[in-house]
Automatic annotation (TrEMBL):
Coiled coil: none annotated. InterPro entries: Acyl_CoA_acyltransferase, BcerS-like. This is N-acetyltransferase domain-containing protein.
Amino acid sequence: MQLQEVSTKAQREEFIQMAVRLYRNEENWIRPLDKDIEDLFHPETNKLFKTGGKAIRWLLLDDQGNTIGRNAAFINPKWKEKQPTGGMGFFECINDPQAAFLLFDAARDWLQEQGMEAMDGPVNFGERDKWWGLLVEGYSPPNYNMYWNFPYYRALFEAYGFQVYFRQFTYMRAVRGVTLDPKMEERAKNILLDKDFQFRYLKGRELWEKFPEYFMKVYNKAWARHMGKTISEREARLMLTKMKPVIDPYLVYFGFYKGEPVSFFINIPEINQLFKYVNGKLDLMGKLKFIWNKTFNPPNKMLGLVFGVVPEFQGKGVESAMITEYRDNIAEKKLSYKTIEMNWIGDFNPKMMRVCEQLNASIYKTHHTYRYLFDREKPFERHPVFK
């Protein structure tokens, strides 16, 4: 077997095609957009390179010159870990431990050369909302930009010595006809009696002009201390621009107190139900297929991207009121979606797990984010739990 570093146009194409061939008989796999993957590895399209990020990719060939595996490793300068930690991802391999271990070794050795002491995988060279974690339970079609892999991958990772750093749960429930936990219903009633609170979706110009400001204000209070990252109004506007081709105004919902945003949840139609028809390419034909299916064969599933309540209103029933108002006034009356899946929640976030359980949602898929310590004598620690 021979490792090749990806450097040429042909090798970059083979990095994509290797996975296409590997999963060609798997009906549940949905081919990611080629551009979504390729853009991660170029300074022109991934700003992490400009702040010190580094990335490398490999192909693994058998003795006959056939590609039997691929892998990538990267340094994300934004990561703040107890020990310097790099990432590995976009791993694909035949069911052969020797081949898999060669790919893991390549990532380990390169990261060690960069001064790292551990590697997490499989993860993304970017944010946690994309390509993060190995699928271990729930082998239904993947949501957009989430890993789908064969079940044997778990054995390959764990045999090499990777340990579970945290588990990621994707919850699902029906959109309509769902009752909530009685305590949640009661807390909601108390908030809704207070006329200073208002819960609504954003209509028309308000969506396009005010969403970035509203989102930034709530996100930076609700999530920044956990994720170690704030978001600017410009970044929020860019996020909205990216969602524009698929956004459904009914799926963007905010809570306000005395006119100030204090909570939100952001959903989108599950667009992998559309991208599965474009064969990885949004060229002219791909765009036409996307538009046709969006119009005549629209998604029947919605995906919950992010949920947040500012700290001063957490635990007081605001989330309950927002959800019950949405259920009664939007979900039951205006939506045709059948199910909703919540973007993964780590087992380090028990508060959000309890919210999902109170919504009568159940775990539908489980992913693992693994960590491998290069010093095999060093004690392993799992991801700290959010308090």
